[in-house]
Every structure is written in structure tokens, then in C-alpha cells.
Amino acid sequence: xxxxxxxxxxxxxxxxxxxxxxxxxLRGVDLDIHPAEFVAIMGPxxxxxxxxxxxxxxLDVADGGTYVLAGEDVGKLSDNQLAGIRNKHVGFVFxxxxxxxxxxxxxxxxxxxxxxGDRHARRERALAALEQVGLxxxxxxxxxxxxxxxxxxxxxxxxxxxxxSMILADEPTGNLDSRSSAExxxxxxxxxxLGKTVIMVTHEPDVAAHTKRIVRMRDxxxxxxxxVARPRRAEDEIAMGIGAAE
Amino acid sequence: xxxYDSFRSAxxxxxxxxxxxALTMLGVIIGVxxxxxxxxxxxxxxxxxxxxxxxxxxxxxxxxxSFGNDNGLKGAGAQAQNLTLDDMRSxxxxxxxxxxxxxxxxxxxxxxITAVGQNTNTSVTGVTEDYPIVRDWGxxxxxxxxxxxxxxxxxxxxxxxxxxxxxxxxxxPVGQTIQLRQAFGxxxxxxxxxxxxxxxFRVVGVLGVKGSTFGFIRDDQILVPLTTxxxxxxxxxxxxxxxxxxxxxxxxMDVTTSDVSNILLQRHNIADPASADFTVTNQNDTLAALSSxxxxxxxxxxxxxxxxxxxxxxxxxxxxLVSVNERTREIGIRKAVGARRGDILNQFLxxxxxxxxxxGVIGILLGWAITLVVHxxxxxxxxxxxxxxxxxxxxxxxxxxxxxxxxxxxxMRAARLHPxxxxxxx
Lengths: 246, 426
Prior knowledge:
CATH superfamily of chain A: P-loop containing nucleotide triphosphate hydrolases
Low-confidence stretches of chain A: none
Helix content of chain A: 25-40%
Mean pLDDT of chain B: 85
Mean pLDDT of chain A: 90
Structural class of chain A: alpha/beta
Oligomer: heterodimer
Number of helices of chain B: 13
Structural class of chain B: alpha+beta
Largest sheet of chain B: 6 strands, mixed, barrel
Number of domains of chain A: 1
Distance between the termini of chain A: 45 Å
Shape of chain B: elongated
Largest interface: A-B, 26 and 23 residues
Strand content of chain A: 25-35%
Order of helices and strands of chain B: HHEHEEHEHEHEEEEEHEHEHHHHH
Strand content of chain B: 15-25%
Radius of gyration of chain A: 18 Å
Low-confidence stretches of chain B: none
């Protein structure tokens, strides 16, 4: 049996807004994600997909249920232990890139190694990651000197640096034009082909169609969990000029 | 996160906000400069007072007659006149090598002095042969009078440097004769009714320049043998106005003080030290009393500087809180990629310490410059410049400590931010 990267059992999460209103963001979520899967998490606003994403990324802790990430129960860990888990197992890619504007590309990519892991080969590994996303010639540019697509590629390089158990992308193409979106998706697909587990939150069916499995959330539970019969290849679309037509 | 990364990150953010960093630092700079300048001026002033005291001679134990009892009324009697030259000789004999030297003095009042057409009015003091040793006061020319001069009440004199110039100009006075005159009788302006005593003295030496002590110009005086003062000038026999003993070192002063006291009690047949007819003053006590005064003064000045340092520290806290607020998103990103609370805490703490540390160094330089400028003011020129390594270490230490104290709260706020809220912050 192949061990799951992510194993969620009966995950619940309740938010309290003000004094009286409580929101049941997650109401018992069971989910298994295996190595080398490419999963899209979809759902309308308020469906709980952002909360699920936060729990998956160990940015937040569930109220109930168990979450085993790469063989480790993360439900009862302290803040600092969760920081260690994020550093080692999770590579984040955000909609707004979230790069540090004061640092140049390679310094941004190095950031996870500042907080853990093998520090010696820092520069080399950051360079390798930037080359992997096709930005080997832009390492000294600041985020403000890069296009949106390039910034997102820096963010992906940063997510790759500690060789995490999964890449967690939150609307990674939300701020990009279709050409750049296609490029980002092709990078994710390429990484997935190499065996990386990628989990992507999106509300765009077109984007989700590039993944291998679509999990649909509704009212804090998983409504549908379907495999994609024939994922679309972003590379082919770029080659056919679909993205470029914009 | 290694310290190197924290430092780099802190420096980067300070460089990015140059103007803000500079203005924030200004508070610390002014504070540290104020402390340095104030404390060094204070230290200099106390050093100057100390030098003045030591100018009278170092390691001195002084015996002076105390006010006696008049039929049981303490302090009602006239000042006792019971210290004698024999008391001093007895101290010399009994203490021997355990003291450096001793001398006795008698004030002979002011006299009109004339020599080769010049005249001046100055004070004459009878002293004994070891005066130059006790007072650390060498002669510019000639020699001090000796024991044999004392034995024969010789009419010889040693002139203060100013007196010598007043009377003889550039000529070396040694070997010359001066006349001491004192008018008596008559009264009023009528010269005819007045008679004067005129005494010839041979000048044997001239004292080196010593400067003034508490406004008393010590270079304008004439020294004569004590016995001559007693027998020829004043007629007050066996009444010395003070005996001054020089201890071998500062450490033996207490022992010397009690030895001298015991010898005199025995000689004066006084059983109870409380009813002694003399007072023994230890120079260390005088110094201690004065340095406690100047110490309080320095402390007060330092406190004024300290308050400005405190205000600077509050400025640091204010800016660090703004900085944490501004960089909430950065904190979120750092936490998302694995920064622990301690990492964030360190980053902001080091930033605050870097601000205050740099400010401290610049402040020291500025404070030093201020002290130099103060030194240019004529009234303060005699105050020695005293920036001690201790002052500098304390100033840097305090400014770093201020960085820690006032940086800690903002840094803790940063460290405690929840990563999700921090990432969502716009």
C-alpha cells in the first residue's frame, strides 16, 4: 500500500465572528492525497476551500479530526513545530505571489533555507530551482522588476527549494493573463510529471481541467471527488498559441 | 535562522528606510551624547576639585587646635593654643620612618615688605624644615632653610614665586636682603605718630610656581623658620597653628591618623579622646566628602542625559511598532515558509538593537565633540577632559539595552502574529 501524503479524517473547523455568530467552515472532511497526485480543490466562496487549504498547509489547526501529513500527526503540534513542518513539507504558492519586495529573486528563493534545512548549498540550490522554472537569467532582479508571471515563477522556485512533500497553490493563476497562466500550469504539470504532489485551490474550471483529480467543496464538506479523464496539457495550448492569442 | 541572516535582514530594512532610521537614531544619538558630555564634564569637574586638594600636598594628615572648653561650656573657650613645635618633633621621633615627613606652621600675619626700591604686602608664615617635602613643593632657586636655622632663630626667608617677581623682577633674589615692616602705635593717617618695626631677612630660596587653591594665590607668600616667627615676628611662643604630617601612602593614612592622635593625647595628658584639645583631619576624608558632592553632581548631570536617552528609547519603540505593522505581510510570508516565533523575534529585536547600537556609537562621537567644544570655553578650560572607557562602555551598553527593552514589545507582537491573518493583511 502506498502511504498517503495527506490523510484527513473527520476534520472540523469552526470560526467565531464577533460574540454570537459561529461559522462551521469545515464539517467533517475525509481526504486522502497520494504521492504524485495533481489535485484541484474547487468550490464557491464560503464552501470552506480556503479553510481546508490553511489546514492542509499547517497554517491553521483543525478543531476536530486527525490530519496525518507525510506520516506525521500534525493535529497536536505547537506553533513552532508547525513552522518546522511548513518549512520541511509544504511549498506555498499564493495568488498574490507574496515575494519580499526588498529581496531579489534568488534571495526570495533562498528564504526557506534561511529557516531550516541544509544551509550550505543554499545559493546553488536556489539557482537550480530558478533554472527549473526558466528564470536562471533573472536572479538579481527585484520583484518590482519582474512581470506577474515571472514573480509567480520565483514563488514556485521558492516552494520547491526544500523539496517539500507537496506544493500547495492558492489560486496561483488568479492574477495572471491566460498566457502566463498557461506557463504556470505547464510548470506545475512538469513538476507533477517528475513526481511532485501538487494541490491547487481554484474556482476556474478551465484551470482545474489541467489537474488529474478535482475535489469539489460545498458547505464545509466534500461534495464531489472525481478523477479527470483526460487532463489538458498547458504545453500543448502554448504551442497552439491559445494563451498567446490574448 | 542564523544570526548572520538576522543581521543582514535588519541592516537591509534600516537601509531601505534611511530617513526614518536616521530620525529614529537621532533620539538615541542625542541621549547618548548628552550622557557622555554631561558625565565627562562632571567627572572633569570632580577631577579638577581633587587636583586642587592634592595641590596642597598629598597624603596629608593635619592637626589643628580645637576650640577648648571654658569651665564646662563646650566650644565657648577661645581656640586652644596648645600645639607646640615639641609636639611635632615628638611625632617625628616616635613615628620615624612610618611617616614620610612632618612640619609645623605658625601664621605670622601680613607684613609690608621692601627690597631694592620695590615693596609689597604679603603674608608671612613660620614653617619647619620639611615643609617642601610635606607640601610636594620644590624650590626654583636657592635652598630651603635647615634645622640649624631653626635652632638659632635665623632671619632667613624663602619667597613665593609671585612675591619674588614683585620684589626683584627678573633678578635672582637669593642672597638679597628684604625688610619686613609692621606699623604699630599711633593710629590714623598721621605718619609722624606711627612707629614701625623693621626687620632684615636674607633670602635663601624661591619656591616653584604652584598656582592657586580655592582662590588663594599660594605663590604670593613668604616662609620663615618657625622659631623665628615665634620669637622675632609674633612673640607667640609654643603656639603653632597647625602640624601637617605626610603619610607614606594613601593606604597608611588611617594608621598615621590614629598614631598621631595617640601621641598627642598622651603628651597632653588627655585620657578621653572625645575631649581632645586638637583635631586631626585626614586628607582622604576631605577628598571623600568632596567627591561625594561632585559624584552627586555628576549623577544629576547623567540623569538629565538619561532622560533624553529614555525619550529616544520610546521613539525606537514607536518606530518599531510602525515597522511591525507595515511589514505584517512579510512576517506572514516568513512564517509560511517556516520561520519560528524566535526567528521573527530575533529579526525585529536585532533591528532595534542595530538602531540603538549605531545611534550609541554616533552619540559617543558627538558627545566627545561636545566635550571638546565645552573645553574651548575659557571658564571651563581648566576642567580636564574625562571620557573614560567606563563611560563609553556604559553608554554603548545602555543604548543596546534600550534597544532590547524598547524593541522587545514590538518584536513580541510581530512574533505572535498568526500566519493567516498576517498573510491576509493589506
